[in-house]
Amino acid sequence: MRLVVYLPFLVSALLGLTIPRFGRRLAPATGTRLLVASGAACALSTAFALAALAGTYVGQLPAVAAFGDWSVRLLKANDPVPPLVGQAALGLLAVLAVLAAATAVRRGLALAEAARACRGAHPGAGDLVIVRDAVPRARAVPGRRAGRIVVTTGMLRALTAEERRVLLAHERAHLGDRHHLYRLAAAVTAALNPMLAALPRTVEYTTERWADERAAAHVGDRRLAARAVIRAALATSRHAVGPAALAFSDGAVPDRITCLLDAPPRRRPFAVAALVAVLTLCLIAVNEARADTESLFERSEPATLTSHA
Amino acid sequence: MAGDQGHSDKRSPGMLEDEVLAALWAAAGPMSPADVQAELGGSLAYTTVMTTLARLHRKGLATRERAGRGFVYAPAVGEAAHTAEAMRDLLARRSDRAAVLAEFVSRLSPDDEQVLQRLLREVDG
Question: Which terminal residue of chain A has fewer beta carbons within 10 Å of its beta carbon, N or C?
Answer without folding.
Answer: C
